What does this fold into?
Amino acid sequence: DTTYNDLTMQGIQFQTGSDNDFQPRNETLSLGNDDQGFWGMTAMTAAEENFPNPPADKPGWLALAQAVFNTQASPERHDDTCGGGLRWQIPPTNKGYTYKNSIANGCFFNLGARLARYTGNTTYSDWAEKTWNWWADVGFLDSETYAIYDGADVSNNCTKINKAEFSYNSAVWVLGAAYMYNHTKSDTWKTRVEKLVDHGLETFFPKGIAYEPTCEDWGTCSTDMLSFKGYLHR
It folds into this structure.
């Protein structure tokens, strides 16, 4: 059914911004790496699913996904605090700029893994490996249970980890790991996928129904949090 193809294409293109990297000028002062990353993953999905490309005078879906990856791989997005990794927010004035978390780095990892599989370019897989290793080493991934923790502040070198678990973190990391396994055929990635899936099902589907444990029981889920289970279902 192609009924809404044009509207969908227009909606995505409206967010690309003048530099075609999903950093529109009206959002730059409030933009997070995860916000940009979700649009990058949207473009990547469009490329993978052969969704009709924009008009010839506009960048295609692959180019848009690559533009997001390139901006997030640039040195200005990575610093030495906590040994590396992306910050949650992009502008220093944003609340959350001093926070490094699983979702920002998970979106970047996810996009790198998918670009590696789609293009065969080792630059993307190298970044995916590097991002996974940093994320695991800093302690955002529990090496025993494979719980994914939310993040930590750079002011204490990411040593005081916020151990809240959210389903969207599980979603982006397990999908990226699955793409890395598909791309590399490595038993290491296979094991990682299996452990992430097992913990995700145990934590977010304890009774066979999707559940957001950090906020659902208390009715404290924000609007964003209410969307998290949707990403995990996908």
